[in-house]
Amino acid sequence: IGPLRTHECSCCASDLAPSKAEAELISLLEAAPLSRSARVELLISQLVDSKEQIDWALLPGEWQLMYTSASTFDARNPLGRRVDGSAPGLEGAFGALTGGASVSAPSSSPIQRAITNAFRVSQSICLEGDDPRVSQRVELPFGDLELSAAALLQDAEPKRLSFRFDRGTIRTGGLELPYPVPFKLIGDEAIGWIDTLHLSSTCRVSVGNKGTTFVFLKKEESAS
After folding, report:
1. Residue among 196, 128, 136, 130 at smallest CA distance from 165
2. d(CA 144, CA 119)
3. What is the mean pLDDT of each successive set of 10 residues along the chain, which is 224 residues long?
4. Which one of 36, 71, 124, 154 has the largest count of C-beta atoms within 10 Å of its C-beta?
5. Could you count the other beta carbons within 10 Å of the beta carbon of residue 187?
6. CA 147, CA 223: separation in Å to the nearest integer?
């Protein structure tokens, strides 16, 4: 899925303060999850352009995916195209065969588009302890799928959370089944990252390694 598109809107002649833009964005996405209206995309652009200091202490927790940016499918890169031009494993093999290696525009895979458009997706981030993790959970009709990745924050990339997927679980009917992908064998294809461009205690705007813009809302913690 491609980079965020911006739209001009006559009803928005001046930028809102980040707190007001965020409050309106949250209200719109709670009313219509995954909306790509011009107003939603303008508010996201305003939050990103505000370039506020990121407080990484706010990053850990449970986040619900509420928005993804859109792009057209590029058959030359059926597994997507990374922002930095890298193409590990099968991504590079397909690109070499189809001419996709010469394409500069990033794009996500059709699998990602299908999943984020059809199912509820959440992300769990834990950066404490000896095994920091980023986990993605997809709620399926018959259960749920969880993909877990080892996480890393790097000083050289202050807004980037890198991760390497190394385990997956399918839960259905009280059973836990291993996700049938040999992460150790696919090498750097299991590596990804997200750059966080706006972060508060309730809302996060991030861009993934294939150019997708994501908006997450933080889930309320359950009472113990």
Report:
1. 136
2. 10
3. 44 66 96 95 94 89 94 63 60 55 65 84 94 95 94 80 94 90 83 93 93 93 53
4. 71
5. 12
6. 25
Indicate whether this model's pTM tops 0.85.
no
Cβ contacts of 98 within 8 Å, gap of 6 or more: 75, 76, 77, 78
Using one digit for the tens of pLDDT, what is the confidence trace for 155-170? 767 789 999 999 999 9
User: Do the Cβ atoms of 136 and 75 come closer than 8 Å?
Assistant: no
169 in Cβ contact with 146 (< 8 Å): yes
Other Cβ atoms closer than 10 A to 106: 23
Count of C-beta atoms within a 10 Å radius of residue 104: 7
Write the pLDDT tens digit of every residue in 199-209.
999 999 999 98
Cβ pair 122, 96 in contact under 8 A: no
Residue type, 165: F
**What's the token pair of residue 179?**
């996700």
Beta bridge partners of 161: 153, 194
Contact between residue 216 and residue 64 where contact means Cβ atoms under 8 Å apart: yes
Structure-block tokens of residue 111: 């699998």
Partner residues linked to 176 by β-bridges: 171
